[in-house]
Write a structure and sequence with these properties.
With 699 residues, this protein is an alpha+beta fold. Helices cover 30% and strands 13% of the residues. It contains 19 helices and 22 strands. Strands 1-4-3-2-5-8-7-6 form an eight-stranded mixed β-sheet. Strands 11, 12, 19, 20, 21 and 22 form a six-stranded antiparallel β-sheet that branches. The chain is globular.
Length: 699
């Protein structure tokens, strides 16, 4: 029997625990019952409205002393505004069978998955996760379930038939073949996701196969061959491929690879399509999904489920998903009424890229493109790429050489920030000779900027390598507009311009920005943190929750990969120059839009560099893509970033924060250096991790 001292120690431990807040839904109910807005509550608790929103949707929790004040307020409201029917809640709770063979929770208002008669004994549609499984550490807030898809967008199937879904749900999957799996998914699983745009299409269900599940379904453990991993496919004579064809199902042109799509022709509005992802075939690339493939099935479902909720149900690599998200948010067609017949037909959706692919202007294409090869174009190409620049040793001052540290600042999703309110062309390019430059018209301009002389301690804003232009070259509109902003005359020689324009990427930017910021909040990186607190939080955020850190990495990869996919190059050794490759059949093969994003991002970077030099007299050592390296007296950006007397960051330069476009300390960017090393070929840009200079084709 426990002693009195032990009992009192246990009670004291309970008293010393942090207060437990009511569920997020109850927090919102109490605030609304009191007639208090989120903004007013945020003011009272000395925080932001977004933080209050996050507390009320379960994305984050307050910390002391704000936690204690919030708890006191909620307790006071709870005494004034008790929940209706609280006393009778126990009487109306659903009953749960104690028999594990038939345990199934059923309520009058809970949506149930559609079922079909089974030949054998009835199997439960859902069951609790097995005790032997490692429990999910934390569950992200889930939106209101679509009654058509009660079990979420996806499931991770293990070898014992357990299909792990979002929010900890586990389904029983009796399938022993791929065909049976597809039919179970469409008829019984209750998986899928609603469309992201009123004119779009619902997301097809995703089934992720573990190694054990793949082997059980007759698939090989690994795909082997001489091609790149992403190009490998099962041969057409493989038994599984034959089974799929025999059952009247079809595979896309990608075949049965790491991301296989199995479908039948849609009947009316009802799609019949299932997406498979095979983990042991490297479906989840370690660079985009760090550590996810090695997680337990329930944790994999959590990571992919949060990504599906905030971004899109994965359709392939993060690059593919980034491109699919553009189309899902800007569907190419919508229902329009035929004035002649009065019938509703499919028509063009304004603001989208339409359904037909569009050839670029010759300077916007790649050298192997048919437009270039067949026309014999020799007029040069648009070279709008991210920075890869290292400052010349001769421009270093004695003071700079004595500073002991080089500190890298990495801009949060710089290319996503550049996509905000970015006007791009929606129609085919038209050719103009000696046009008057107009910064509001997107396109490609041939102009001579070699006469512009800028400070050699900064990279040129007009070239990716930062060198001064020496002859006429093709530039995207944003690059020429920046030259004009710097006070120089711009006289284009010729141009390829688009008459129809629009902010095509705006909804894509908004959704990914929200996903990025919300995921950082889940990791404890919130907008209200001070700069010092922000740097400390960024140092630790990956250790707080590896699953959510993986979601954050996937969101960042979706941005870069999606932009890169806009100019996907031909793949395979058998390709011959001048032939059309599959990517050209997509309306989203738009190298001009990719160039616009990168041009704006590079110009934004130069503008910050210029403002920093004017405010502080500091000049960078190197710039690689979205990361810039500065000499510093200390190992933190707080040692050299400009701050006003009030302690607030100076506008116009680099600022720290979690919002896209703001800066953070780069992962291994605190480096001891000396000018002697520079003279021996030391290149600061080589030591920058995270700066991705190539936004070409994604994966």
């Amino acid at each position: 029997m426990a002693s009195e001292e032990e009992l009192f120690a246990s009670v004291d431990a309970l008293l010393n625990e942090e207060p437990h807040l009511p569920p997020p839904v109850e927090r919102a109910r109490l605030r609304e019952a009191a007639g208090i807005t989120q903004a007013r509550l945020a003011t009272a608790l000395k925080t932001t409205t977004q933080s209050v929103k996050n507390w009320e949707n379960g994305r984050s929790e307050p910390k002391s002393p704000r936690l204690d004040a919030y708890q006191r307020l909620l307790n006071g409201w709870a005494a004034k505004y008790p929940a209706h029917g609280a006393a009778s809640s126990a009487a109306t709770a659903p009953a749960v069978s104690s028999d594990p063979a038939v345990s199934e929770v059923k309520t009058s208002d809970a949506p149930q998955a559609p079922t079909v008669p089974a030949a054998g004994p009835a199997r439960p549609a859902t069951r609790p996760a097995a005790a032997s499984r490692r429990p999910v550490a934390k569950r992200a807030a889930q939106p209101t379930a679509d009654p058509r898809f009660p079990h979420g967008p996806l499931a991770v199937l293990d070898g014992d038939g357990s299909a792990y879904g979002v929010a900890g749900i586990v389904l029983d999957c009796p399938a022993t073949t791929v065909v049976e799996l597809v039919e179970w998914t469409l008829r019984e699983s209750g998986l899928g996701a609603a469309k992201l745009n009123r004119y779009g299409k619902d997301s097809d269900p995703l089934i992720v196969l573990t190694l054990a599940a793949a082997v059980k379904l007759g698939l090989p453990e690994r795909l082997e061959g001489h091609e790149q991993r992403r190009s490998l496919r099962l041969p057409e004579d493989h038994p599984v491929v034959k089974q799929v064809a025999k059952a009247k199902w079809q595979l896309t042109q990608r075949g049965f690879g790491p991301w296989a799509r199995i479908y039948r022709t849609a009947q009316g509005r009802d799609r019949q399509c299932v997406q498979l992802a095979i983990l042991s075939w490297d479906a989840l690339d370690e660079r985009s999904w760090p550590g996810v493939a090695e997680m337990e099935p329930a944790d994999i479902a959590r990571v992919l489920g949060v990504y599906a909720q905030r971004v899109i149900t994965p359709r392939g690599s993060t690059a593919v998903s980034g491109l699919e998200l553009m189309t899902a948010l800007r569907p190419p067609t919508k229902a329009v009424q035929d004035p002649a017949t009065g019938n509703w037909v499919s028509g063009y959706n304004p603001g989208s890229l339409g359904t037909e692919p569009m050839d670029p202007a010759p300077p916007e294409a790649t050298p192997e493109h048919p437009v270039v090869v067949q026309s014999g174009w020799t007029g040069g190409f648009l070279n709008e790429e991210a920075y890869q620049w290292v400052r010349s040793v001769e421009t270093l001052s004695d003071e700079e050489c004595t500073l002991p540290f080089a500190v890298g600042l990495d801009l949060n999703t710089a290319f996503l920030a550049a996509a905000a309110r970015l006007v791009v062309g929606l129609s085919a390019p038209d050719h103009f000779h000696a046009p008057t430059f107009n910064p509001k018209i997107p396109g490609s301009w041939l102009a001579d900027l070699s006469h512009i002389e800028l400070d050699p301690r900064l990279p040129s804003p007009f070239t990716p390598d930062g060198t001064r232009p020496t002859e006429p070259a093709w530039y995207q509109t944003h690059t020429l507009a920046y030259a004009q902003q710097l006070g120089y005359d711009v006289h284009p020689i010729e141009a390829y311009l688009r008459r129809e324009t629009g902010a095509y990427l705006d909804p894509w930017h908004d959704r990914l920005k929200t996903a990025y910021v919300d995921t950082l909040v889940d990791l404890g990186v919130t907008p209200e943190l001070s700069d010092a607190e922000f740097l400390a939080a960024m140092e630790e955020h990956k250790q707080i929750d590896p699953a959510m850190a993986a979601v954050l990495a996937a969101i960042k990869a979706t941005v870069k990969g999606g932009v890169g996919k806009l100019r996907e190059r031909p793949q395979g050794k058998s390709y011959k120059e001048g032939e059309r490759w599959p990517a050209l059949q997509r309306p989203t093969w738009r190298p001009d839009i990719r160039a616009a994003v990168i041009s704006k991002a590079r110009v934004n970077m130069h503008r910050k560099l210029l403002n920093m030099s004017r405010m502080t007299g500091l000049f960078p050592l190197a710039v690689l893509s979205d990361c810039v390296v500065y000499p510093s007296p200390g190992n933190s950006p707080l040692d050299f970033l400009p701050y006003a007397a009030s302690g607030k960051p100076q506008p116009g330069g680099f600022r720290l924060g979690p919002t896209p476009g703001l800066a953070k300390l780069e992962g291994v960017q605190t480096m001891l250096w000396a000018v002697g090393l520079m003279e021996q070929g030391y290149n600061p840009a080589r030591h920058i991790k995270g700066g991705d200079a190539v936004l070409d084709e994604g994966e």
